[in-house]
Amino acid sequence: MTPEAPGVVTVDRVASLDDVAGRTWDDVADPGDMFQSHAWLRALEQCGDGPVTYLIARRPGHPRILGALPLYDSLPSRGDYLYWPELHFQDLLHAASRLDGRLGLLAGSCAGFGTRLIVDRGLPGPARTAVLRALRDAAGAVAAERGLPYTFFLFLDASAWSDLAPISGDGDHHRLASVAQTELELPGTGFEDYLATLPRNTRTSARREVGVFAEECATETVPLREAIPTIAPMIVNVRAKHGIAYSVDAVTRRLTAYCSALGDASSMALLCRVRGRLAGTGVICRWHDRLYVTDFGRLDDGAPDPFVYFNAAIYEPIKYAYSAGLSKVVTGAGAELGKARRGAAMLPLVHLAWAAAGDRPSRHTGAASAENRKEHWRKIRGAHPRYFHSAWDELL
Predict the structure, then answer these.
(1) Which SUPFAM superfamilies does the entry mention (predicted)?
(2) Between 20 and 30 A from 183 (CA), which of 73, 138, 195, 348?
């Protein structure tokens, strides 16, 4: 492929990564993104949460993968996931009324973290756009065959949205997410180096939160596999408090996928006990030089809370990352300001709804919702400009 002549792109449907040579997948997947990895996707398949199909883009007669798009089913009746399309595109629900609430397929990643695209980064811009257009058209065809009006890309990071924007059609809807991803680059070599980077008032508060927690809590790090039966209901409890109806089975499957993909050495649970009572838990997963904080769980029994959330979801993972020689802690989406005050960068996320083949509804339906999200983030950035990464500039 060349910038002047992108060439013909064919897209095949593949039922399982067993049908794709591991080397060819690894050549195109971003090695820094755990949720694109062969190990993660195979673990999802084994747990029953894998894609309904993989779309694989190639040049005719060439084995090299130019781009790929996993497609996941999403049924409103399951009540499993925070990233349901209907939570982010409620203005489109009218399109699903004739389909028992089914809006479409989920494309790319369904992990709830910032999503990157599986595309050959060596391709020049026009060729990359041609590959993504072919994948987009193929995804629309799959949705249309299933009688679904949309394919959804949720939690796109800024670079992914930049790549997809040229192929967005008149019937598509996009908007900033109501949450942002937070990531912390670790300075120096230890926890005191991290604290030293915080503003004085925040540093004082952080030392107090860490100190009270240390006095009242004992923390144990165990293989995630051993803790799943105990912590899954605690994670469900936290989700329910935020209005999200997770099931214990769904959380158990997802935690099991982390274990299968990463092994005991890289998938762990932080168990926080107050006088022997398990009061909270954080799930941490190591991928190369990154540590993902994937879940937080707690009891809701009215007992005193010695800053369990901030320690289980922020400070203890930071300490672990330093001890393991890692460079970044990905603290995920939600509670952005609290994490940003404690040193994390806030990165924008974008949601995109692709209208399926032959279905081009009016674009104005989601305009107000999209603008409201922009105004929400503009106000927060106006009040806290130093928390916002420069990637927000083009989106706001």
Answers:
(1) Acyl-CoA N-acyltransferases (Nat) (SSF55729)
(2) 73
Per DSSP, the chain holds a count of helices (H) and strands (E) of 13, 15
Give the integer Cα–Cα distance in Å for 369 and 245: 23
Task: Give residue 358's pLDDT.
Answer: 55
* Residue 173 tokens, joined: 């809807």
Distances (CA, A) of 356 to 136, 148, 360, 368: 9, 7, 8, 22
- 108 by Cβ neighbours in 10 Å (0-12 / 13-18 / 19+) ranks as buried
Contact (Cβ atoms closer than 8 angstroms) between residue 357 and residue 143 = yes
Beta bridge partners of 106: 72, 152
Which residue is listed with tokens 């694109």? 36
Instruction: Tell me how far CA of residue 227 lies from CA of 34, 222, 233, 251, in angstroms.
Output: 22, 7, 11, 12
Specify whether domain 182-346 bears CATH 1.10.10.10. Answer: no
- The larger pLDDT score, comparing residue 119 to residue 76, is at 119
pLDDT tens digits along 285-327 = 999 999 999 999 998 777 677 899 999 999 999 999 999 999 9
Q: Does 359 have pLDDT greater than 60? A: no
131 contacts 164 by C-beta, under 8 angstroms: no
Q: What is the DSSP string of 265-283?
A: TTEEEEEEEETTEEEEEEE
- Return the number of other C-beta atoms located less than 10 Å from residue 264's C-beta: 12
Query: Which residues are CB-contacts of 364 (< 8 A; sequence separation ≥ 6)?
Result: none
Q: At what angle do helices 38-47 and 248-262 cross, to 10 degrees?
A: 140
Write out pLDDT tens, residues 241-270.
876 767 899 899 999 999 999 999 999 999
Kindly state the average pLDDT of the residues 220-235: 97
For the entire predicted model, the pTM comes to 0.91
CA dihedral for 197, 201, 204, 210, sign (positive or negative): negative
Mean pLDDT of the chain: 88
Domains 10-180+348-392 and 182-346 share a fold: yes
